[in-house]
Specification:
- This protein is an alpha/beta fold.
- It folds into two domains: 176 residues, Alpha-Beta Plaits, CATH 3.30.70.2810; 165 residues, Vaccinia Virus protein VP39 (Rossmann fold, 3-Layer(aba) Sandwich).
- Helices cover 32% and strands 23% of the residues.
- The strands form two sheets. It has a seven-stranded mixed β-sheet with strand order 2-3-1-4-7-6-5, with helices on one face.
- Helix 3 crosses helix 4 and helix 5 crosses helix 7.
- The structure holds S-adenosylmethionine.
- S-adenosylmethionine (SAM) binds next to helix 7.
Length: 360
Amino acid sequence: MERVLLLCRAGFEGELAAEAQARAAAVGLPGFCRARAGEARAEWCPSPDAELTAGQAVERFAREVPLGELVFARQLLLAAPVRSGLPPEDRAGPLLEIFAGFGRPVDGLVVETPDVDGLKPLQALCRKFAPIFERALGRAGLWCPGQAEHRAHLVFLSTVAAQPALAWLANSSPWPGGIARLRLPGDIASRSARKLEEAVVTFLGPEERAARLREGMRAVDLGAAPGGWSQLLARRGLLVTAVDNGPLDPAALKSGLVEHQREDGFRYRPPNPVDWLVCDMVEQPGRVAHLVARWLAEGWCRECIFNLKLPMKRRQVEVERCRALIDHALDEAGVPHRLAFKQLYHDREEVTGHLRRVDP
Ligand SMILES: C[S@@+](CC[C@H](N)C(=O)[O-])C[C@H]1O[C@@H](n2cnc3c(N)ncnc32)[C@H](O)[C@@H]1O
């Protein structure tokens, strides 16, 4: 394992490579990222170093660069080079040799492809190959569910080429492709609701959800129409003020927990502080960043999930500019806080932010 394999949305490889390289450099790991546009993956390789082997450098990357801090990464894997020329009659043999060389027991197996339309036909092969390779890992004594720190990954790039890799359980996504599996009811008012549900399961663990996003809490939804986000919050039992000059879908109002306010989201102020602000207004990212920082600084909410629509160019720079703007505003106001951004599977040309007041 002499490289780190990162998966992302196709078209964002450049952003991912830039942030991975910068994050690694910040923890004293010089290296370079290889990424080709449209491949939905990037590889970070350590620079030759007198003190660390390549294997040690990638282990340090996995331990010191949290996946949660890489905005554009969906998955983080320790990988061998791509194994090409796999014999179709025995793909497992050569791949198993590589895993034997890793010498690590594994807790599970994911057989996947990068999220590229042209590779979708390979998914049938992945499904068929998974049980075959699981048995092969078992015969080799490497299959140790519940007793291992790593999960095996095979990332297929063609019918005869796959990249063997390990995910460190403590710093990887549990979902194939890093794509959260969501269960949403059929009557939700908008497709965009998937973004909020994915944000909730990405940014909040099960206990945090139970404690901080629960029945009886109050939320404001800025840019709420047609109402999918409000509807999801109401399903969790929150009382929601849905702010939008546009009309809400009747489905969003059915619970009786959503109240519609026809008002501009930048002018609206809650009569009393609320627990949550969510914001999906299509606006310049800098304006939204200012707004959410103000809500926290004024004590109008304690926690916030918001979407930033990115410009066509310099997208990573724009995210970092918004991060700096929010941090600066809240530091000036003396508000201890945590801020994270992620490009979710359901985010297209956008990223989702999670901002929270943390009292010492
Ligand atoms: C992407 S849609 C929101 C979809 C919503 N999250 C859902 O799940 O149904 C963006 C909404 O933001 C609203 N919007 C844009 N600028 C706004 C503003 N200044 N004040 C209030 N709403 C605004 C638009 O009217 C539009 O309904």
